[in-house]
Each structure stands twice: as C-alpha cells, then as structure tokens.
C-alpha cells in the first residue's frame, strides 16, 4: 500500500444509482465551548463533538452511522434535526439550505424530518396519554387527517403493532419495547420523508431489539421513508442499512455500501469494530474464520484530539506520517465507487483471520496467553 | 408519621407498590388508562393520616368560609362590645364575672376581658381573616414561583443567572426583621401616616410583604425541576415537531411540575399562617377590632387577660396547633403519595 494508490474521489459520484439525495451535509461541525477559569469564567477550549463531516442520505434509503460512545453520533443527529445550531457547515434538505433556518422558516419542512429517540423512558411525556402524545405533532402542525386525529392515532398504533384501543393509556402502563413503538408512531404521525433514529434499540432488551428493528425496517420499506440510523455497533446496522458510515472522534473515517464496509473494510478502525461484532453463521453456510482485533485504551478526549489521524493513538499501523498529516476521506484503489476511507496505510479488504491476532490490550493479551497454554 | 406504618397497620392495602407499571399492567382488561394523577390519588386514599389531616384542614377552611353564616345562626358577631351592651356580665375591671372567662350556654367560648367581644365568633372570623391572607400569599407566591422558576430553568443562560442572583439576594434578608420593619413602610405607601389605616390596606401590605420574601424557595425547586425536564427527550420530540417554547412550557413542562408545586404549596401555606399570626401578634399586622387569629394571641398575652382569664389563650392556641400540625401531616402525605420512593 503506497500513496500512489490513493485516488482523490469526488464525493458520492457514481454511487448515486440509488436515487436523488434527500439530505446533504457538508463540513458539519459542532464545538461545545468549555468554560472555566476563576474568578472570571471564560471559554478555555472546545469539545470537538463533530468536526467537519460530509454525508448524504438519498430518498427512501437507510443510512447507518456507527461509532463508539462519545464520538458525536447523537450530536450529528441533533444537528440534522435542528435541535442544535451547527458551529459550521451546511445541511441541505432537498437542495434547500436549512442549517441556520429559524423555527418559522423551518415550518414547511418540519414535518418531513422526524426523530426517534434512544431512551423510551424519557422520550414520552408521563403526563400525556398515548393518544395525546401521538396526535401532538399533528396538532402543532395543524394537520387534520380525514376521519379525524383519533382515527389516525388508531391507525398509527396499528401500524406499529400496538392495540389501537390503548390510545387512552399512559406511558407508564407500557413496557420499554412498547414505548419505543409509541415513539415510532409519533415520528410517523407527520408522514415524514426522513427519520433520524438515534440508537433506537440500544436501551431495549436484546430479545425486543429485533422486534423493533423489524418494525423500523417494515416502516422504511413500506412507507418509503429514508432513515439515518445511528448505532454504536455494526451488528444492528447490518440488517438495516444500505450504506454505512463509521465515525471516530467527530470524524467520518470510512463510508460505503453495506457489502464494502462489512466484507471489504479498509480502515483499521472498521476492522476493529467488525471483529467485535458477534459471529452469526447463516444456516448451511460455514463462515470463514475471522480476524481478531482487540483495541487498547480509551477514546482520546474530544477537547484535545490527536493531531493528524485521530485514530493513531490506538492504531497498530500508525507511523510518523499519521501524526503530521490528516488522512483525507477518499476512494482507495480497488474500492467500489462510493466507498471512501480516511487512512494513510489502509488494511487489506478482507475480514478473514490473520496469521496473528491483534491484541493491543495488555491485560487481554496476558489472558489470551494463559488460555492458549492450557 | 408517614404512611408505611399506617398502611401496614390499616390492613386496607393489597397492592401498595411504588412501581406503578407492574400493578397497572396486571389489569390488561381495563382499557381506560390510569393517569399518574389518579395513581397518586389512589395511593393518597390509602394513607389514613393523610385522609384525616385533609379532613381537618378542610374543616378549618369550611369554618373560615362559613363564618358569617355560623355567626348568624349563633346570633352574635365579633364586633359587638358586650361590655357596653351587657355590663352585668363584667366586673369593674372589665373581666367576665362568670368563671373561665364567662363561658356559658350563651357565650360558648366566653367573653374577652376588656371590650367583651364574643370569643367564639371572634375566633371564627379570625380564622377566616388569617386563612384568606395566607391563601392569597400562597397564590401569589405560587404564580411568581412558576413564572420565575420555570423561566429560569427552561430558558437557562442569562435569564437563569439573573433570576438566580435575585433569589440569592432576597434569601440573604432576615425575614422576620424585614417583615416588622417594612410593614409600616408598605402601609404608608397607601395612606398617609396621619390618617387611620383602613383594614384592606393592612391586609394588602401583609400579602405584599410576605410574598416579597416568600417565593424564592418555590422558584428554586421549580427551576431545578424544569432544568431536569428540559433535558428529557420528550421536550426535544416536541421541538422536532415544531412546537414553540410557549407551547412546550404549557403542555410539556407545567403538567410535570404540578407534583413539586402541590407538595411545596402544602408546606408553604401553614408557614404563611404562622408568619401572619406572628406579625399580628407583634402588632404590625391586623389590629383591633378586625378579628384575626394571630392578633388573638397578642390579646391573650396582655396583662389583663393573662392574669384574669387564662382560658382565653386556649381557643386560638389549640385551634392553631391542630391546624398547623394537620396541614404539615397533609403535606407529608401528599409528598409520599406523589413520590412513593421517599417513603421507604
Ligand atoms: N450539550 C453539550 N455540551 C457539551 N458537550 C457535549 C454536549 N453534548 C455532547 N457533548 C460532548 O460531545 C461529544 C459527543 O457526544 P454525543 O452525545 O454526540 O456522542 P454519541 O456518539 O451520541 O455517544 P453515545 O453513544 O454515548 O450516545 C461527547 O464528548 C460529549 O461529552
Ligand atoms: S492513518 Fe495511520 S493512524 Fe490513522 S488509521 Fe490509518 S494507519 Fe492508523
Ligand atoms: Mg448518543
């Protein structure tokens, strides 16, 4: 792997087969000021939660955004739904720049971008009945569906797999999975074109996760809604998203179609994430042995991220160049169109087992030694 | 003092469970949802102390409300100077001749030494005045607390900072001294010191002075609650659907601050009753001939009454103790019903 293999790739070109872009984000940045000092409090730094990311979601597409805790996924989602003001960059929806639009200017497209939240216990107002919660968005936007709002609420409850007679109940009378379904019904109430789902199943029981993911998948396919699906591991996104982006410390480090990311990943971090996904062998098919990579250490602080490549403090391939030069997000030779990677020394495009496992965590390494001796 | 012991002893409770979820889910047949408010009401009804104190408190408010009617049926009013009307009941010093301050079938609670007011109607009307003033103070305090507390918590930033500093400043005031010192000042804003002060001015001044230093604790609590609520995802959900701040405060925040609001209000009202009584006792509140609970204490402590008619003290004293204790017990029960976790 040498640098002449790098091709500067125009963003997304050629991969546009899926349709016209619905949402386009470029150079999106969010820095949270850090206050400190005594006696006069002033800004002494910034949490670089999101630092210049580009992505695009096409009509009806499911786009997965994956990364470890604290890498800025939720912040990205909140910027796109305009719950937060971006520090820099643009968000355009159907070609219209909405990155700084006021509440009134946003009104016409408000109903088209909705959100599903992570915590089903905090995303429903405990004082409102399910009917009120789901019809709230219609009320705010003055939507009067044919047959009345109550009828629509019943329909929505039916769509998400709840008893339509339960619209008079209160959130505390439902389980976590059911609450999340109510959250989905609320998001669907305005017939959106794009739903940002911020880790919609990570607070749920494993047994219920699959049900909710299936529901979302059904909704996405049948209603043709585009999804920005945020998750912290690659396992859930695999069944859900046509395209996947991997984030690390506020930056997108690799993006591509599902097959490229899961079977031909190039970035070391994607390799590490993939090797952490539990193995699922499809019936009748013998999955080849996979590589084993265990990272050491913690994610560095987003207040003072490493220079050059942000992953270099945990990367086993890091060299001097990684500290001085930030790798651009480009299409590497041998990659499919639309598969972009930000790495100076990318890995081979395979997930098969290596001759030697990469175990950087000294404690884990010692453990492995012991077990291999027995 | 609080519910658990009573509940266990009462034998009425089958499911006293703080976790509303499981107990509610058991009855899947019932399709009408049980609101958090209704669950609280059900918990409260099982708390015997709470129910009894609520009855006592309601009784006092009923007395205050119905005082004119009761005194009409009883046939006397608190303004008649019986020392002039019925001089045969008093000795030369103005002390009732009959024992125990002149208690008789005619004057149930006796007569007041000196002017000879009827103690029974005086107490009824005294309770009425005190409760009216305290209720008015509570209402103004609650409104101010909601307005400033929710604004500080929800808007945050500079608003929060400004309101926070005002609260700190006002909390530093020595309340009792301030009340005593400022009452005449406030009164003089309305009438010149040479004229006689009408009662309504004194009432108004009492309300203003107590309100001025009364709202901070409530505002602080509501600020904290709104601050916590603001971070909840359902607020973000409302914003994503395009709700205005005003709608969010009205529909999402306010229904959720009702709990701390009610709990605090049940603690605040009795404290305002005692504060008002204190001021009237010290002579800066309501003065004769307007009947007032606190002012009856100051009457009881005058030399004439103290030495000749010790029974007089019992009526305002015992009634007030019952009222305050019942109200505070009610406050505890309300809190337990709202937040069953603190009880265990
Ligand atoms: N309001 C805020 N003020 C200051 N810092 C913030 C704020 N919100 C997020 N951050 C910081 O920004 C970084 C990214 O946070 P974010 O919530 O986007 O992460 P995440 O990828 O969603 O993580 P998780 O998987 O835990 O939800 C974190 O370091 C976090 O501490
Ligand atoms: S650029 Fe260097 S440090 Fe960063 S992932 Fe690639 S090899 Fe590792
Ligand atoms: Mg998050």
UniProtKB/TrEMBL annotation, chain A:
Query: What SUPFAM superfamilies does UniProt report for this protein, alphabetically?
Result: P-loop containing nucleoside triphosphate hydrolases
Species of provenance: Streptomyces griseoluteus
Q: Where are the transmembrane segments?
A: none
Q: Per its UniProt record, what InterPro entries does this chain match?
A: AAA+_ATPase (IPR003593), ABC_transp_ATP-bind (IPR050319), ABC_transporter-like_ATP-bd (IPR003439), ABC_transporter-like_CS (IPR017871), Oligopep_ABC_C (IPR013563), P-loop_NTPase (IPR027417)
Q: Which CDD domains match?
A: ABC_NikE_OppD_transporters
GO process terms (BP):
peptide transport; transmembrane transport
The residues covered by the ABC transporter domain are 23-274
Tell me the protein family, please.
Belongs to the ABC transporter superfamily.
Any one GO MF term held by the record is: ATP hydrolysis activity
Q: Which UniProt keywords apply?
A: ATP-binding, Nucleotide-binding, Transport
This protein is called what? ATP-binding cassette domain-containing protein
Which PANTHER family does the entry link to? D,D-DIPEPTIDE TRANSPORT ATP-BINDING PROTEIN DDPF-RELATED (PTHR43776:SF7), TRANSPORT ATP-BINDING PROTEIN (PTHR43776)
TrEMBL record, chain B:
**Per its UniProt record, what PROSITE patterns does this chain match?**
ABC_TM1
Give the principal location in a single coarse category.
membrane
Enumerate the residue ranges of region (Disordered): 1-27
- Has the keyword Ribosomal protein been applied to this entry? no
GO process terms (BP) = transmembrane transport
- List the Gene3D superfamilies hit by this protein, alphabetically: MetI-like
Give Gene Ontology CC terms. Answer: plasma membrane
TM region(s), chain numbering: 50-70, 131-157, 169-191, 203-222, 253-273, 310-331
Against SUPFAM superfamilies, the record matches this protein to: MetI-like
Keywords linked to the UniProt accession: Cell membrane, Membrane, Transmembrane, Transmembrane helix, Transport
The chain positions of domain ABC transmembrane type-1 read: 127-331
Instruction: State the membrane topology.
Output: Multi-pass membrane protein
Does the keyword Disulfide bond belong to this entry?
A: no
The entry assigns this protein to a family as follows: Belongs to the binding-protein-dependent transport system permease family.
Name the chain's protein: ABC transporter permease
- The organism encoding this protein is Streptomyces griseoluteus
């Amino acid at each position: 792997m040498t640098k002449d293999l790098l091709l500067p790739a125009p963003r997304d070109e050629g991969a546009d087969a899926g349709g016209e872009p619905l949402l386009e984000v470029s150079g999106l940045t969010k820095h949270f000021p850090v206050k400190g000092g005594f006696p006069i409090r002033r800004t002494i730094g910034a949490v670089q939660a999101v630092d210049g990311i580009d992505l695009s979601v096409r009509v009806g597409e499911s786009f997965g955004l994956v990364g470890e805790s604290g890498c800025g996924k939720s912040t990205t989602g909140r910027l796109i739904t305009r719950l937060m003001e971006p520090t820099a960059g643009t968000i355009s929806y159907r070609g219209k720049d909405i990155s700084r639009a006021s509440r009134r200017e946003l009104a016409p497209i408000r109903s088209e971008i909705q959100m599903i939240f992570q915590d089903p216990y905090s995303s429903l107002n405990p004082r409102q009945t399910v009917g009120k919660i789901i019809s709230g968005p219609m009320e705010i936007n003055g939507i009067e569906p044919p047959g009345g709002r109550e009828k629509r609420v019943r329909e929505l409850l039916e769509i998400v797999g709840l008893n339509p007679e339960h619209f008079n109940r209160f959130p505390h009378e439902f389980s976590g999975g059911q609450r999340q379904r109510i959250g989905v019904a609320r998001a669907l109430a305005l017939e959106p074109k794009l739903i940002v789902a911020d880790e919609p199943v990570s607070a749920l029981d494993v047994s219920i996760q699959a049900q909710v993911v299936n529901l979302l998948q059904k909704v996405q396919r049948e209603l043709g809604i585009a999804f920005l699906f945020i998750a912290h591991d690659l396992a859930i996104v695999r069944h859900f998203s046509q395209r996947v982006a991997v984030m690390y410390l506020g930056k997108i480090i690799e993006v591509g179609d599902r097959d490229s990311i899961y079977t031909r990943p190039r970035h070391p971090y994607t390799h590490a994430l993939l090797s952490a996904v539990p193995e699922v062998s499809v019936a009748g098919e013998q999955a080849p042995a996979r590589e084993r990579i265990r990272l050491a250490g913690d994610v560095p602080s987003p207040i003072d991220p490493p220079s050059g490549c942000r992953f270099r403090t945990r990367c086993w391939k890091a060299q001097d160049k990684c500290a001085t030069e930030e790798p651009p997000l480009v299409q590497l030779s041998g990659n499919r169109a639309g598969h972009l990677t930000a790495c100076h020394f990318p890995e081979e495009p395979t997930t098969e087992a290596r001759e030697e496992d990469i175990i950087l965590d000294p404690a884990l390494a010692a453990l492995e030694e012991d077990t291999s001796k027995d | 003092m609080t519910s658990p012991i009573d509940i266990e002893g009462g034998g009425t409770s089958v499911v006293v469970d703080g976790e509303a979820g499981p107990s509610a889910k058991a009855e899947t047949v019932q399709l009408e949802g049980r609101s958090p408010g209704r669950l609280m009401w059900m918990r409260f009804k099982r708390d015997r102390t709470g129910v009894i104190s609520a009855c006592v408190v309601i009784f006092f408010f009923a007395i205050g409300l119905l005082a004119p009617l009761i005194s009409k049926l009883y046939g006397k009013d608190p303004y008649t100077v019986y020392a002039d009307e019925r001089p045969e009941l008093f000795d030369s010093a103005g002390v009732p001749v009959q024992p125990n301050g002149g208690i008789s079938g005619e004057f149930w609670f006796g007569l007041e030494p000196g002017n000879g007011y009827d103690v029974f109607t005086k107490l009824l009307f005294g309770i009425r005045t005190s409760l009216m003033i305290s209720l008015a103070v509570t209402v103004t305090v609650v409104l101010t607390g909601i307005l400033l507390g929710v604004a500080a918590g929800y808007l945050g930033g500079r608003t929060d900072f400004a309101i926070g500093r005002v609260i700190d400043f006002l909390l530093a005031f020595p309340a009792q001294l301030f009340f005593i010192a400022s009452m005449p000042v406030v009164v003089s804003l309305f009438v010149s010191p040479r004229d006689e002060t009408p009662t309504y001015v004194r009432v108004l001044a009492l309300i203003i002075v107590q309100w001025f230093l009364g709202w901070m604790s409530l505002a602080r609590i509501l600020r904290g609650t709104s601050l916590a609520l603001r971070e909840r995802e359902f607020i973000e959900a409302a914003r994503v659907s395009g709700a205005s701040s005003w709608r969010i405060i009205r529909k999402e925040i306010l229904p959720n601050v009702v709990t701390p609001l009610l709990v605090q209000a049940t603690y605040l009202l009795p404290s305002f009753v005692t504060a008002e009584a204190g001021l009237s006792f010290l002579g800066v509140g309501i003065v004769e001939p307007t009947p007032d609970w606190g002012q009856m204490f100051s009457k009881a402590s005058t030399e004439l009454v103290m030495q000749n008619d010790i029974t007089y003290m019992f009526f305002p004293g015992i009634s007030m103790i019952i009222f305050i204790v019942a109200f505070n017990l009610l406050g505890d029960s309300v809190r337990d019903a709202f937040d069953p976790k603190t009880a265990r």
